[in-house]
Every structure is written in structure tokens, then in C-alpha cells.
């Protein structure tokens, strides 16, 4: 499996890591040449981060690390003592941890964090440190580095924090930089800038181990790609080959999951709008104007995609449309009738017409209840509405005891989202991410809504599961004739599902168009910028 | 293959120790509950029967832990005291949790005015040391077991109220609560099924630890002569009686003190365990 | 007359630990024993009393008592100077007694000692006449106590209750609450009572410090580790240990006055019935209980008066005894025949419950709480439910005034049998005095009034004997033990004496170096 | 700058609120006491109905409740705490004498507890054997203060005669402050260590290690600051614990101090003293809490006003 190009910087053979007997990394072998970029991709939990951390001796508490060969530039790292590791870290191998939000100490200035590597390896005298830090920050594209270095992480945007983190890793001028999911938490546009920065470093001769779960992200940068699954590397080869002629079925699956299908054919939806949002404004108590004069319409059976960068007001709009948040101005109509203007008491009998699916399935399911109870609760509101129908299973028409019929109804709901009845007795934390989101969808559908509002329903999920859930939603749309307001920051996802797309920025809808038109001829400058930043496979 | 780095897992070692400790704590608590319910199971003597002829026997012989000044068996008095000490701790905590929950939910869900009223009151109560609050309550109600119980409950209540409120505010904004609202569930079922249980469960874990504190507080009040009254064999009261004899009959003050310590340690071990488990699951 | 000043060791400092701290240090105001104990060295009295009850001149060189016992005329010494420089004269004495009875003084005890006080008359510069509205025999003895000690007419500066200016061998120095009171030697003292050990001259000690150490263990530890030279209120449980300690000497002085006993409310509740009172008393094995709780240090008591009090009636001894069968008979006879599930006797469905309210302070003193628990257990066997509620001082007083109690315990030291008047005379029902047994019997009243109005020894003896006998026959009291003032001092301490009430006196104390 | 002003204004408002609340609480408590307040003032002394009426008039007990309340607040605002019923002296004086010994005790105890906690926590956080240390701490904080005091007293003072009892000499401060410090220190150690261990598991620590920082540097430069936050948060609790401990320790060791004065006042229902202690505690709380807020700002830049 291993390709061994001449003169490699790092050679790993048969690396295994286990935690209390649980194997996280299982016999991984690869090598990296100077100035090369090796990408490590794979689904969540496949062992990417553990592999990366094992390379600097920080595999984690309780980790047992074994390797047949672990050589950095001719030096065997096996048997390194803590002091040896310390000398190597930051100086020869730099590591950028997965989450820039928590990887910087919130109580220390950015400057102090970046300087840590300089101090630890005595690379700058006391007087030189400040200058070097500014230089480093400038080099990774932080504007005004002399001011920024006195700031604390919370005063920096996500992109700047990620840059500061990279600056800290580069302080010791390591030959190898390991970047663990450097762009996951970021907007597409910021993502692109970070990837550019890494490309620069590689061009300057730094070898790069780039880790991501997203094939599209690594496609831009990687010379070679290693695909990991369940602790093993299932495929390793030059980037072009892996992307165009994947050999392993898992790689093919990963590639297939990357949403690239053409936008849906334009359909027209006659009749009056199901949901109309009219000139809605919302300002929060702290003065944030989250929504300003937003207008949208969703027709029955239509999927309206809503995109926009983080903080543009998408979730706020969803909450207003759901009647969870009262707008300051404008109004929301449901089927031509007042909706946002109603009191909660008046709205309650109508609530079954609108369902919701949130981003994080775990936090949208009460952790204390079983699946059966969660769905049963939703069913119960329907039973109150349609008492006769509920007791009668579809096939037989026979009237059953309440409890029995409830069990059957729950099983039916689960079946609709492709889950077996055996899950009914589990609690949310006993389910996988995909299963959880399916349960959340089943619950939303149990009340038979005509409109489903989905706020980033797939962004917490792995690519492969993402595709399954999207398929499910589309199928349900076709079967049940659901209308959807579909929110995502991921243009590829939006493109795959939407009939029409609305683009939000800073609380305003800047453009609304049919999906095909929007992706072919974006009119608004912001939309164009968004589209350009999207990473693409090959 | 050779080991590159093998870090010793301190946590693993702890888990073993934790298991042993937990088993010990569970055993102690089990015995305590048994002693509280059927004290007769552990001793043949009466806790209040006086026999001056047997006064101040040292430990050993027929009297495992010796006898007190009126010839009462110390072991028996401690066994019978279990009920009083545990009862004070549990009842005071239950009272504090119940009151704190009502106040906290009122503050979190009852609108601005209720929130202000409840929280400002809680602020004032939290500003005063628990012991001082307890003493004020006793100034009002006079000494006695009932007042000691209420005094401890009052001094712990504001803390619980504040916790419940904070938690309820978080839970109220949780997506699963929004989801329940969107389903069209009536307000009271949203509160009863989702907000209350999820706000309460972390509190119940903390209440276990609170019970330990309450037992200590109860025995302190008895020691000061403000709580359970002799001849009731409450542990703090036994200690108060025994301290006269520190120099001459050490067993009078030693064993009740040990009983308190062992009980509170056991309660704390269990409480911590529950907390770890709870927080572990949430994380 | 003053003797020659004895040689004193320079810088001699003596510290003595007390178990209680009085809330007020002014003996005119306070009722506390500790106040009298501390101020005995600071204030002098008109007369002094010796251990056998004899009365001697002190600030008064001599006195005359009118036939009707209503007027006492004192001839004062002319050479006495208060610590603030004021001279002792008749006006000063008058000012003192007037102050005691003034409402603003809020006297708790000294006014009671003055009884039916009418006024004082300045006869001449050094002659004062104290007049009463009724014959009042106990006055001289009362005048010998520190409570009626003569303070400077100028009075102290600063807060009341904190400092006292007298003419005694010690000058009030400083006071730190919850910590200590310090007295200094009065070098110009010449007018001590003739009987006093120093022969009337100044004290030996330079400073005398009273420390307040309420915890028994702490107080004992302070003595055995040498941090203080002496302690009061040695707990009976430690007597044996202290006796074995070669560095310590134990001084025991039986108190005069009323013994420690439980009084039964004979005017309401179940104890209105004399049979129930007798049954209650017979159910208690006082001998065994006192021996156990006090390790044989205290003697059991038979009468209200302690054996060393003048006119103690020895014939009451062994006139009653522990007899559970007799108790049962009496209870059956009185109709309390049934028993309930807990084993308490009942009559007509009502349980035989008696209430004995107490305060925390009362209970923690001198093992009284333990003793009460012993009584509780003993009478339980006879079928009484004895309920001890812990109440606060004010409440207790309210209960006593309203008569809503069945039992009340106390002891009272005073070296005069007139104390019986307080306990048994109807004019002293709790509103005004300490007749907590609520005895209201004209015959008893006449004995006690008569005794107070006559100077005739025999008449007094027989009247007091009858009263003591009556109290025992009617079982209005269960006398428990005879309190003993237990003081322990370091072996080296010499010259410690005690006053008739049993309290230590320090004017003769010497610390040989 | 306005941010800072707003912050200070907030502190002052909170202080005023807590003090007013404490005063009101004390007033309400006084009204709740069953029976006649005049009776309680007289205490155990015999008194006629006239005396009682005079006292009522003197104390304003015969006025309407609202007026009593306002007068009471006005008196407190003037700093007039009234006279103790029991001791018949101005309350301010009575408390004034007792503050210093309690402060001495508290300062020594906190010092001991903090020093011990810092030492033990930093040395044991995340290391082997901390299970045993943790058990010892658990036992320490589960031990009743009064019992610990008695045991120490009987061993060191009585048996071994090493340390004096009562107060006066500085040496007599050793055992009481130790008694008070043991449970306090044990709790602080646990909180501190938990904070340290939590901080040591944070990604920023891994980042620091990945830059080549040493273990000790990480402990001191990163983790300790984070661990201080929960400690500082605890100071309110610490204060409460100190007071409760002082009541018991002063009783057991027969020391002068506020704790014992309070206890005596409670037993004797000496309201003016109880009220004064309540106000004093509230004041101390307010001051300490403001200091805590300042400490937060120093430790955590995220909380600083923009
Ligand atoms: N400190 C640890 N203790 C125990 N198990 C661990 C530890 N760190 C990681 N694991 C386990 O090792 C496996 C691999 O984890 P790793 O973090 O490498 O996944 P990943 O591929 O980086 O996933 P993601 O894309 O979610 O970051 C997972 O099952 C994880 O639960
Ligand atoms: N409860 C709130 N109080 C104050 N400001 C809020 C609140 N909720 C949201 N905001 C602010 O309103 C703006 C819009 O937030 P919103 O959550 O709608 O964004 P979003 O488009 O959903 O972003 P994301 O993609 O990150 O989910 C943001 O600036 C946010 O900080
Ligand atoms: Mg990872
Ligand atoms: Mg959002």
C-alpha cells in the first residue's frame, strides 16, 4: 500500500494507537516528502486527529502508541522521552489543532500565544519577541499585527483566530505542519483564504499534513490523498487518481456524497403562497439588527433554499417564521391568514401545520425521553385533532387499544424515515447522528405539517450521512407534498435541493431566484463572491 | 512493534479506587438506612433507658463503644441517632429543593416582576452566611429539631432557587423545548415534561451533596444546643454531651464525631459519583 | 483598724478563670454570681459576714437596729476613700441604696435584697439611717453582700455595667468582653474588715485577672497547663483527676442558701394533687442519680436549705425516700391507672404529661441536663411523660409568670434562711419573686413573715424548721443536691479564702516566688 | 470609559440593594417573632405592665408598622445600631470590640487554607496518587468543625501541652485557625484541582504543548489562571463558611469574636445585636463581592468592558 518516494521527511509504518484496548488507529503507514501536501480524509471518528497527534507524542491521556517505523528526517522518534518530544514540537513539527475557538487560551493575548513557541525554543531574545510575533501574524495575513497581538482571542473573528493559531504553529519554522480540519468552523469565503495561506506555506517549502472530512476542501491543495476509515488507511494515492478513479468503495461513497448534481429543473408553483414573510424586521435587546425588511414566500410543495454567511440572520428568520420569536416590524402569514400576529394561545391549534428540523439533532431531542415517547408526544397532538383516524392502522382499519395503536403509530413514523421499530426504546444519546436527525424529522412529520422549516439540517452530519438525510427529505417532499424553507450555509447542499434560492446578508435578502438561474448567473455581487469561494472536487 | 510512548493512565487507576470507594460508600449508606429504619436490628439495648450502675464504662465487653454518664450504651445511642441525623439532612434538603424549585421556576418562567422579586430576595439571602441565616430562623422560631430543620432549609434554599432558575433559563431556550412548542403542545405539558425535569435533574445530583452539608449543619446546631434536644441521641447532641469528658471518657465524644464524618464522607462519595455520571453523560 | 502593710512580691499577677461572663458588671444591677465574685474585691460593704454567719463591722464601725426591725442606723468609718478620690460619708451610702431601688437602674437582684426599703436618712456626716416600711430582719446579712456594696457616689464614667468604682482592695482596671476583666491593687487600702485575712490592709497581688473560659475542658486545660492560676466551677467529672494532679489544689466550699432542686407547680396542672407530687418524688432515686452524675462529689439534698445554712433542719433528712411501689400506689389511688401504647399512665384518655421548660444555659451548667435526663428516664418507669422544652430566657420567664409549667429547677446561694421566704411566701409568687412552686398558704406566710420580723433566735429557728418540714411533707420540691463551690488553684497559691456564699476571695492571695 | 462607569454604578446599585434587603429581612424576622418584643427586651428581669409600656414607647413599638420600618431604616442609615438588650451597651461598641479577634482568626485561616490548597492542588493535579489525596480531602471536609476542634484541643493542648488555649498570645491562634482552615482548605484544594485538571484537558493546553512548552510552564502559565476563576467564584461561599466556622470554633476554643457574640444574641434574642451582625455580614459580602468582580476582570479579559 505504501508509496515510498525518495527522500521522505516523515516515514510512518504500521502506526497503531489504542485507548484502553479500543483501537483508534490501526496499522497506518504513510510518508511525506519535504514541500509535499498529504491529505488525510475520512469520516468523523476514523482516527485522523489521533494519527496527527501521535506524530508529536500527544496522542492523549491513556493512549498506547506503537509503530513499526516512525522516522522524522532520519531520526527515530520511537523511544523519545518527554524532553526529546518537547524539543521537537513546534520546532520541527507544527500542529494546528482542530478547533480554533478553543485552541487558543482565552485568558492570554494572541501575542503571548504566538510567542510561546519562540520562548520555548529560545528563538528570540526578550526584546525581539514582540517584533517576531508581529512579523508572524503579518505573514499569515492578520491585518494590523501590532495592535492585534495585544488583543484576546474573543476579540478576533474565527478566521483571524485560525490564522493566529497557524502563526503560533509556524513560529518555530517547522519543516512539517500538521493542520487538523483548519477550515471546518469557517465560512466558505474565509475557508478559501485559509486554504490559500496553507498553499503559500507549502510553496515556501513546508511539508503539509492536511486533515479534513471534506474531500472538496483537500482537492485544492493535496498532492496525495489518504482515505481513512475506522482507523485504517483504505486508499492512498496521488490526488488526481483518488478523486477521478477511486478504487476503494468507501472512497467512491465519499465522492458520491459530495453534492455536485445539477440544480433541480425549474418548477413553477401556482396558487397562493403557504408562508409569506412580509417586510419582517427584528432587533435584539442588545441592539443587534438581525433582520431588516425581509420578505419571502414559500408555495405549497416548494423548497426555498436560504443561504448566507454565519450571523446573517437565517436562524432568526426561521424562528420568526415558526412563531417562536415575535418580529418588530412586518408580519408573517400562513396560508394567507395572520400567523406572527396571533397570540401563542391562538397559534397553538394551528401549530401542526409547520414543523421544524434543527441543526443539532442531539440538542433538539429531550435527552430524558425515549424515541417512542418523543414521537408519541407529537402523535398525541394529532390524535387530539383527529381522534377517529388515529386509532386505526392503515391496513386493517381495526380499532386498537390506545397503547397498542400508539406503538404501531410510532413504528410507522420511524419506518417513514427509514428506521426500524427497535429504536423506539432508545434515548437520543444511544443513537448515531444520522439516526437522531431522522428521529427529529419523524417527529416533525408526525403532526402532518404542510410546511417544514429546516435550519441547517445536515451540517452536523458526515458527508455520507448528509446525502442520505437529504435524499430522505426530498423523498418526503415528493411523497407528502411538503413545502420547505431550507436553510444552509453550504451552497452545494442548497443547489441540490432547492427550487428557488434566497441569499441573505447582514439581515437582508439580497437576491432571490430560481436555483438554476442563481447558480448560472448570480446577479448580486455578494452571491458571486459566495459562489467563487466554494471549493470543488477536481 | 515497540511502544513509542506509554503514558500511565492516572485516571484508570482512579477508576479502580473509585469503584472500591463507591462500593464502600454504598455499603455504609445501606447500613445507615437500615439503622434508621430498624435500629433494633443492630442493638439489643434501649437508647434512653438509664442505668447509673453502668455509667462511663470504657469500650469493650458488653458495650462495644462504652457507655455514657447515665449508663446508656454509646453504640445504641449512635444507632438510634442515625434516624435523627439522616432525617434532618434529608428533610432539610428536600424542603430546600422543593422551595428552591418553586421559587426558581417562578423566577425563570413567571415574567420580569416575579424574576426580580425572587432573585433580589435570593441575592440578599445569599449575601448572608448560611449559619447566620439559620441562627436568624432560630431566633424567630426558638431552638428545637423543627426549627433547626427549617433553618437549614432556609439557608440552602436560595442557592437551589438560583440554580434552578439558571438551568430553567437554559432549558427554556433549548431546541428541544422549541421543538415541543412548535409541535403545539400545551404550555403546561412543555413545562411539566421538558423544562421541569431537565432543570431538576442536575439539581437532584447536587442535592445529594447538599444532604451531606445539611447533616453537618444539623449536627452543628445540635452541638450548639439549638437543634435536636437531649435525651434524643442526635449525633451532634451526643458530642455536645461528651465534650465534658474529653479528658476522662474520650469515647463519649470520639464515636459520635466519627459517625458524622463517616456518614458525610459516604454521602459525598455517592454524590460525586452521581455528578460524574450525570455530567459524563451530558458531555 | 488597718494593720501594717505586709510585704508583697513585686509584679505578682494572679489570673483566675470563670465559667460564665456576666452581662453586666455592676452588682447593683446584675444578678449574676460572677459579678459579685469579681466585684467583691472592688466594693466594700457596710458589714462583713464570717463563715459561721457572724456579722462584723466593715465600712460601718457599728450599728443600731430599732426594736421593730424597721430602722438600721450605721456609724460609718471616717477614713475611707473611694478609688476616684471621693470620701465615704452618709450621703454616699444613701445615694447607693437610692440608686439600687431607682427604676432606671433596672436592678435585677440588689433591689430584692433591700426588700421593703423606704428610704435612707443622713443623720450626720458619718451616720446614716436606713428605713423600711415593714420589719426586715435579713437586712444586715444582705448589706454584707457585694450586691449591696457601696460604690463611689460620683459613679464611673463611660458605659453603665462596664466599670465599677468602689473603695475595696482592688481597683477596677480594664474589661475586654468575652475575654477578661483586670483589677489592680489599691495600695492605700486600710479599712478591711478585722476578720479578713489581711488584717484590713492592702492586697498582696498587683493585678488580679478574671478570664472567661466557658468551656469546661478549656478551663481545666488552662489550669493544668499553667495558663491560669486558678479556676472556678470545676466540673465534678474532673474532680478525681484534679485530686490526683500534684500541681493543683482543690478547694471545696459548700454553698449556703437553697440547694439545687426541682420545684413542682402546686397551683395548677397535675401537680395540684399532692399525691402526684409525692409519687413523682418517690419515683426518683436521688441518691444514685446524684452519685452517678456528680461522681460522689456532691451530696444529695434533703431540704430546700443547704446543711450549712443557718437554721437548717436536720430532722428532714431521711424523711422521704425512693419508693417506686409507693409511687405506683399513689398514682393508682389518684386514678391514673390506665397505660397507653408508650407505657405512660393515662386518666380519662389524657396522658400523664408534665412539662419542665429549660434554657440552654440552665441545662449546660453543672450536668443539670444529664441529671434531668436521668429523672426523665426514672419517672418514665412510673408512668410520667416528662417533656423538656428548650426555650429562651424571656420565654421562660413568661411561662413562669403565667404558671404554664409543671416543674422548674433552681439553686440559690445566700447565707441566710430568709431565702425560704422567696421560695415559699405567697407574696413572692413568680410575678415578684422565686416562689416557683406557687405555694400560697397563710400558715407558711405567717411563719416566714414572723421569722423575718423577729430577732428572737429560737422563734426563728422553729419557724424556719416548720417551713422546711412543710415543703418536704407537701412535696412541693424535690431537693436534689447540695451545690459545692469547687475552686482549683495551683499548689503554690496561698491565702485563698471564701466568703459565706462559698465564692473565693482574693484579697489574701499570695504567690510566693 | 462609560463601560467602566456603568460597571461601577452597577456595583453600587447592587450594594445598596443587598444592604436594604438585609435590613428589611432583619425587620421582617423581628416582626415574625412570636410574643411581645418588649417582653424579650426585659428578658428574665421581673417587670410590671407599666415598665413594659414604657419600653414599648421608647422603642416605638406602638407605632404603625410602616412607620416603625421607616424609622428603623433611618436609624440604620445614620449608623445608629441601637443598644444591646442583654448587655445594655451600644451595639456598635459591643461588636466593635469583637471584630478584631474574628478578623485575625479568619485571616489566619484563609491564609493557611489558601497556601495549603495551592500547594497540594498544583502538585497533585492530573498526577498519580491524587485519588488518595482526594480521599483525605473528602474526609477533611466531611469532618464536623466542632469535633475537629475538640480533637485538636485535647491532643495538642491538653495531652501534649504544646499550645495554649483561650486567647491572648499569638500561639493560641494556631489551633483555632487550623481547625477552621482544614475543611476550608480541603474544599479549596478540590475546586482548584478540578479547575486545573479541567484546564489541562483543554485544547489550548495541547496547543501549547505542541508548540514545545514544558509541563510546568503549561501548569503555571495556562492552567492556574483558569483554575483561579472557580476559586474566586467560591469566595462568597468561603465567607459564609468562615462565619459558620467562627461560631463553632470560637465556642469550642472559648475565643472572643463575632461568632460567639452572635450565638449569645440568638440564644438571648438580643435583636439589636442580631440585626447589626446581619448588616455587618451584608456589608462584608458586598465589599468582598465587589473585589471578586474586580478579580474577575483582572483574570478574564472576556469580561472587561469594551
Ligand atoms: N483521548 C481519547 N481517549 C479515548 N478515545 C479517544 C481519545 N481520542 C480519540 N479517541 C477515539 O479515537 C477514535 C478516533 O478519533 P479521532 O479524533 O482521531 O477522529 P477524527 O477522525 O479526527 O474525527 P473528527 O472528524 O470527528 O475529528 C474515536 O473513536 C475517538 O472516540
Ligand atoms: N438572542 C439573541 N440576542 C442577541 N443577538 C442575537 C440573538 N440571537 C441571534 N443574535 C444575533 O443576530 C444575528 C443573526 O443571528 P442568526 O443566528 O440568525 O444567524 P445565522 O444566519 O443563523 O448564523 P449561523 O450560520 O451562524 O447559524 C447575529 O449577529 C447574532 O449574533
Ligand atoms: Mg478530528
Ligand atoms: Mg443559524
Give an overview of the whole structure.
The complex is a heterotetramer of chains A (538), B (283), C (513) and D (306). With 538 residues, chain A is an alpha/beta fold. Chain A is built from 21 helices and 21 strands. In chain A, the strands form four sheets. Chain A has a six-stranded mixed sheet with strand order 7-8-9-3-10-11, with helices on both faces. Chain A has a six-stranded mixed sheet with strand order 17-18-19-14-20-21, sandwiched between helices. In chain A, strands 1, 2, 4, 5 and 6 form a five-stranded antiparallel sheet that branches. In chain A, β18, α18 and β19 form a beta-alpha-beta unit. In chain A, α5 packs across α7, α14 packs parallel to α17 and α17 runs parallel beside α18. Chain B has a single domain, classed as MetI-like (MetI-like fold). Helices cover 73% and strands 2% of the residues of chain B. By secondary structure, chain D is mostly helical. In chain D, 77% of the residues lie in helices and 0% in strands. At the B-D interface, α1, α3, α4, α7 and α9 of B face α1, α6, α7, α11 and α12 of D. β4 of chain A pairs antiparallel with β1 of chain B, so a sheet runs across the interface. Bound molecules: adenosine-5'-triphosphate (2 copies) and magnesium ion (MG) (2 copies). One magnesium ion binds next to α12 of chain A.
Question: Any descriptors?
Answer:
heterotetramer; A: 538 residues; alpha/beta; Rossmann fold; 6-stranded mixed sheet; disordered N terminus; C: 513 residues; alpha+beta; 7-stranded mixed sheet; 4-stranded antiparallel sheet; 15 helices; binds magnesium ion
Q: How would the blueprint of this fold be written?
A:
The complex is a heterotetramer of chains A (538), B (283), C (513) and D (306).
Chain A: E1 10-19, E2 22-32, E3 37-42, H1 48-54, E4 63-67, E5 69-72, E6 75-76, H2 82-88, E7 93-96, H3 100-103, H4 110-120, H5 126-139, H6 145-148, H7 158-170, E8 176-180, H8 188-203, E9 207-212, H9 215-219, E10 224-229, E11 232-238, H10 239-244, H11 249-257, E12 275-283, E13 289-298, E14 303-308, H12 314-321, E15 329-334, E16 337-338, H13 344-347, E17 354-357, H14 371-385, H15 387-390, H16 402-416, H17 433-446, E18 451-455, H18 463-480, E19 483-487, H19 491-497, E20 500-505, E21 508-514, H20 515-520, H21 525-533
Parallel strand pairs in A: 3-9, 3-10, 7-8, 8-9, 14-19, 14-20, 17-18, 18-19
Antiparallel strand pairs in A: 1-2, 1-4, 1-5, 5-6, 10-11, 12-13, 12-15, 15-16, 20-21
Helix pairs in contact in A: 4-5, 4-7, 5-7, 8-21, 11-18, 14-16, 14-17, 17-18
Chain B: E1 2-6, H1 10-37, H2 74-109, H3 111-127, H4 130-141, H5 145-172, H6 175-182, H7 187-223, H8 235-242, H9 251-282
Chain C: E1 13-18, H1 33-39, E2 47-49, E3 55-57, E4 60-65, E5 71-76, H2 90-101, H3 110-113, E6 117-124, E7 127-132, H4 139-143, E8 170-176, E9 180-185, E10 207-212, H5 216-224, E11 230-231, H6 239-244, E12 248-254, E13 257-264, H7 274-282, H8 286-294, E14 299-300, H9 324-333, E15 338-339, E16 345-347, E17 350-351, E18 353-355, H10 360-364, H11 368-382, E19 385-387, H12 393-402, E20 407-413, H13 419-424, H14 442-453, H15 457-473, E21 477-482, E22 484-490, E23 497-498, E24 504-505
Parallel strand pairs in C: 1-10, 1-11, 18-19
Antiparallel strand pairs in C: 2-3, 4-5, 5-7, 6-7, 8-9, 9-10, 11-22, 12-22, 13-20, 13-21, 14-21, 15-16, 16-17, 23-24
The complex binds adenosine-5'-triphosphate (2 copies) and magnesium ion (2 copies).
